[in-house]
Every structure is written in C-alpha cells, then in structure tokens.
Amino acid sequence: MALHQQLPFFNPSVPFSTPIQGGLMDGMIITLSGRVLPDAEEFSVNLHNGSNIALDLKARYECSLNIEHDTSQKWGSEQKRFETPFSRGQLFVLQILVTLGSYKVSINEKPFMDYKHRLPFKSVDSFHVDGKVALNLVAFQLAPHLVAPPGSFKVPYKSIIHGGLHAGKVIIVQGFIQSQPYRIVISLRHKHGIALDYSPRFDENVVVRNTYEDGQWGEEERSKPMPFKKGEPLLVVIFCGQHQYEVFVNGEKAHTYSHRFTNLEEIDVLDIRGDVQLTFVQP
C-alpha cells in the first residue's frame, strides 16, 4: 500500500508501532492526537531507522517538567527544554513536518522546535509511541503546501486547502459540541459549489450528506443513529479516497460518500459552521 493511500490509525493501543509506508519524504506531516494520562511519569515519540533512532521526543514529569529530544546512533548530545505543553490529563495534537533540513515540531498548533537532521530522514522506516498516553489518532500524509491555519478557530471557520484535495488527503476537525446544539455543518467547497456538505442535525437526530452543484442541491443521503453526543468532545476525520470520502467520528468509521464532484484538486476550501467549539483543525 502506497503512502498516499494509507488510512489513519484510530484509537491505537500504546505501545504503538507502525512501518511508514514508503519511508519519510520531504513535505510529509505526521499528526498525533491523544491525551496524557493523569498518572503519567513520561511518554515518548520516536522515528526509527532500523535499530537507530532518528528522532526521540520524550516528555518527563518526574521532578521538573521537561521535554528532551535527541537522536541515537551512539546517542548524540541531548537537547532539553524545561517546559512541556503536554499537561497531564489534557488533550493534545502533535505534528512533525519533515523538511529537507529538519523536523519542524508543533504542539497544539504552536511551533515547538526545529530539529536538524542527524540521520538521513529518507532512511527512517517506522514510527513509535510509548509511555503513559492514550492515542485517538495517528495520521501520515504529504503536505507539500502546508500553511498553518488561522490562529483562531472561531466558528464560523473557513480555511484554504492548499493544493486542493487528492486521494489520501486527511481533513481533521476536533472540538466540543455545545450542550444544546441545533446543527453542525462541515463543508468541502470549490469555486462553483460544495463537493461535500456533512451535517449532523440534532433537531432531526440524523446525519445528512449532500452536494451543491449548478445552483441546486442533490439528493440527500441521511442516516441514523447519530454518532455525535451533545456536550461531548468531537473528532471528525475525513479521508479522501479515489472514489469516495470515508468519514470517521471519534475513531469509528461512520459514513462513506461517493464523489459527485470529481475534480478533487479544485476542492480548496474547508468551511465549518454551527454549534461547535473548535480546538484544532487540519485542512
């Protein structure tokens, strides 16, 4: 299976380990979403080249909170930062962007560090997570035109999908549903219409999918049961395949929707509206 066809991992058990299909590439982004356990003493995120470790990120909670990052090939000099954005019991999103010169690490959408390669990144072949952390998502995708979304995730939210969609593209929406919601709408748009309008409708207790083309709506696809819960966390991952979208809700595959608008590269806007508070969006 080629990298661009690789599905995300949902709710994997820890320790977690997976080969990286095709190895690392310039412009690849690894997204890790989870929660540090309340009794955590440490957890680690590693990129491996066989028995060598190309990047070791370790959060420790023993005496002082700190993050260490290093490479091992007869371990190099250790770099430490004596603060951690990973609070015990809290949700986080960690992303590693691979560039020709370094790994650019961001946490909760804020740049954290730029770590220059000590081992060739193209030789890295596996990814590992260990320690006191619960994972809900691990995703690999190419992001050659990656641009950080706006700093505020205020709803209504709109962001450009740079380069448009393609087979293997992953859209991530994370947040909290309001206690008395009416509707939420997640739309993938192009300049002439809406390729996918995905709408949990709490007033009808149904999820509706549809497409808007040539000035009119198509035939609705409606389904029950409702996988979204009032007042609870929300994690929606839309995986764009060659022939359809696959929508995962809180780690479970919930819906599929065949492409009606097939010029995927023209679908370049993510629009989110309704009764949701957003904490993280990857367009």
Description:
The chain is an all-beta fold and 283 residues long. The chain has 2 domains: 140 residues, Jelly Rolls (Sandwich); 126 residues, Jelly Rolls. 0% of the residues lie in helices and 54% in strands. It contains no helices and 24 strands. The strands form 4 sheets. Strands 13, 15, 16, 17, 18, 19 and 23 form a 7-stranded antiparallel sheet that branches. β15 and β16 form a beta hairpin. About 7% of the residues have low confidence.
| The top level CATH class name of the largest domain | Mainly Beta
Task: Work out the helix count.
Answer: 0
**Total beta-strand segments:** 24
**Mean pLDDT rating:** 84
Query: What is the global morphology?
Result: globular
* Spatial extent as radius of gyration: 19 Å
Q: What is the CATH fold-level name of the largest domain? A: Jelly Rolls
What fraction, in percent, of the residue positions are helical? under 10%
β content, as a range? Answer: over 45%
Q: If classified by CATH, what would the architecture of the largest domain be?
A: Sandwich
Main pleated sheet = 7 strands, antiparallel
Q: Give the number of domains.
A: 2
